[in-house]
Write a structure and sequence with these properties.
single chain, mainly alpha, 7 helices, elongated
């Protein structure tokens, strides 16, 4: 591999991982700043079709003047968006335009699934269904992981991703390190 191309590959790798570190500081605030309103307002509009809903502050829904639901950080799923970003940025050999499209598609898919999840759970809660806690736990522990992995595997297939996140970079680095 030519020296210039090798230097460019190292710089690209360094940039991708530095970006991942910077985005995580402090406490994924960028994801919560962006995705809180993008989650709360659609949930408000959709639940408003079925119930009388008001928004108090930035993230509390009052439903039928009696039920209060606060969409906390865990509901917004900032860590899930970050995991998708990790998957997308830790794969080498993807052109910038394609990478940006992949990130946008993955974030949009997660946003739609998350809004649907919150609307379904809200409906179960407002209905007073005794299975709410079980449904909430299943959505929280199992389906949230399935959502993220499902989105990533769909991206791999749709965008024909050939490399493995992190592993391909480590393999490249180990190949270039010369131990005497």
């Amino acid at each position: 591999m030519k020296r210039e191309k090798l230097d460019s590959k190292f710089k690209g790798m360094l940039l991708r991982y530095v970006l991942l570190i910077l985005v995580a500081i402090p406490n994924l605030w960028i994801f919560y700043t962006i995705f809180t309103p993008l989650t709360v307002y659609p949930v408000y509009l959709i639940t408003g079709i079925f119930f009388n809903v008001m928004i108090i502050g930035k993230s509390v829904l009052i439903i039928n003047n009696s039920v209060s639901i606060e969409l906390i950080k865990a509901c917004i799923a900032g860590a899930a968006y970050y995991l998708l970003l990790i998957f997308n940025l830790s794969v080498p050999n993807i052109r910038l335009k394609k990478r940006l499209i992949m990130i946008g598609v993955s974030f949009l898919a997660l946003l739609i699934l998350n809004i649907a999840r919150i609307v379904v759970l809200t409906s179960i809660y407002v209905a007073g269904n005794p299975l709410f806690n079980l449904a909430h736990e299943i959505f929280w522990y199992a389906l949230s992981t399935v959502f993220v992995l499902g989105i990533w595997f769909a991206e791999v297939r749709i965008f024909k991703v050939k490399d493995i996140p992190v592993y391909t970079d480590i393999k490249f680095l180990l190949k270039k390190i010369k131990i005497k």
